[in-house]
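Annotated sample (chain length 728).
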Amino acid sequence: MRKSLLALLIAAPVLTYAAGSAIITLEMPVGARQLGMGEVGAAVADDATAMFYNPAGLAFGPLADEWRMSYPADSKTAPFFTKMAARSKNGFFAKSELWAGTAQGILRYDGEQWVDYHSVTLQGNAKIKDAVKVYVGTERGIDEYSRQVKKFNDIKSAEEESDVVEVKMPWNLVVNDTITAIIYDNRTEKLWVGTPKSLFRFDGKAWKNYDEELGSRRITALVNQGASLWIGTDNGLFLYRNGQFEQKGKVLPSQKINALVWSENRKELFVAVEGAGVARLVPKKSVNDKDRWSLFTEEDGIMDLNPKALAVDSSGHVWASHKEGLSHFNLRKWEQIKFEGNTINDISVDRKGAIWIATDKGVWRHLPDYATASGRKAELERGTAEAEGDVKSDDEWTHYHSGNGLSVNKVWAVLPQGNDVWFSTANGMEQYKDADYQLTAFYEKLLPILNIPDLYHLYGGMTVPMGDWGTIGFHVNFVSFGSTVVSGDIDADDLVAYNSSEIVGGVSYGTRFPGNIGLGLSIKFFYSDLSSGAAAGEEEATTFGYAFDVGILKKGVVLDKLNLALVLANIGPSVYYVDKTIEDPIPLTWRLGLSYELLALADYKWIVAADYNREVVYDDSKGNPEPFYIACWKSIANPERGGHGATAAKNSLMQGVFNVGTEFIYANTIALRLGYLYDDVGQRSEVDFGFGFMISDMLQFDFATIRDVGDNDGVRDGQMRFGMLFKF
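Output written by the structure step:
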């Protein structure tokens, strides 16, 4: 049997992917998520499978580091977002959250959207009034609270109330004042909130007001120390422990507390005292012990006596912000860093030890040399070097402003959260999204109707963000065509088994340009073996080659949420298997995509997308494949079915594959997908179904299946796809 016939027998069942060309693995779609949406992906391109559909997707978040406006709000004269608190991921399956205090109450960011309410599920025969009573933590004013909740949920009658299962409780139902301090206690999973008049606590179900215990005080700062909570006010420092409040720091020259920070390394509390400087407290360890206070003033090296914010870095150093600079306590002495002609508004520390400084002229990220690996080693020798006056610093300073990320220069507050950083600016809440590494895997058993156990498709890919440079990715696409048993050329009883497979591996890169335009490039290398296991002396039907993909993605075309994509995939030379005079083109393909986000609400996200894939291989008059720069347009102008004018245009259009799909995500946890594929040339008319589970911020599982709805053979009917996405 000739190898050309063998190759045809092996590849025939899957030729519908890339009719008329070789190396069909180059066009085998990947990703159970995309395949559940009718195999769309060119304009969606927001996970690691973008390397197949459109490498330009690597230029945007969540695949690339990205600045974005998260919540617009006019805050030019005073901050709308006053304070921020983060819930860090304390387990593999946990999801991070962000609470923001505003001038009007609380907002919560659930990882996708901002919400101004807390959802409560009614149990049994419970009514809205019963749930409200628990939520507000009191029976006083319960009728008015219930009226507000019904109005917030648009419930106008008893009949409508009887159908309600989930009730949205507004955050500002209880706390409707300016938030002056906020902190989330990961250990007890409680949210503490301070206002100009009182202290509140939310335990996940109910609010508690501490106005009777503390009186009417302006809460200025909150910080945890294990099971204890330190509370700074405009009239005293308090410690809350085991349900009891105790006033501390009566010895201080001023009782107006501006900021607090706890140093876990040294078990010390640092207090910014208005008009007095920075105080340090070593709390007593037993009832017979005493609190030990010390006070740092200008004589000790701090910049002035009015510190506004405090932070402790990963090495235990203390940073205090003043109006025009910083005071840095390196555990031996205080140093000063001046910001002349500028005003510092806030300071915070990320988990890598970098100091974030919010000012009227942007944000500085300062990574001290001692926070680096080499710097920690040098820190041990720092005392001697300082004494000798020979200090070498490798400190890093990075300035972010309206010219390189932020929408405006004035920044009121800053809070790192994991790899991300949040900024309260004059335009609202902005986010620097530090992209995760993404690792994806995909498997499908091909053509189940043929029941060939070793006919399957595997894909794996990984993306690596590279900061301002964009994102790079690596991927492998593998198809096993199974084992084919054929008779020999001489003896019909001489059976030969041939194992056939193809593998494509490559690297992709995407970078972003002004105007929300991303450009991507993929370089792929492939190896096709259609006759592994051939008998001795027979020629093997194998080939090796390369291909390129070039893609562009424009976000916000006419409408904010409308994306447009254009890709030219599989640019490369033709290949041959056995006979050098017989060349086959690789599946050069135009891919056009559109996607639109119909809904982007707190609990719901809904997108629709469409792709058009048109293979553009073309032979010259001698039957030889044309190069890509000719085939890419000549195939469109001269469709296989011929015709002139409108008929030719229609025939050319119908030579492509149409894909449409939609994805609906609930609570950033469950995704439902539906798609449709129509291929006139390949005689396919299919509906795709899929769903996904986002188990945590890190892990996602996807599943999809195909149902044939046409009058064709339906060889892919019942085909199932499985996928996984891991972020780290």
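Annotation: The first strand starts at residue 66 and ends at 72.
Annotation: The mean pLDDT is 87.
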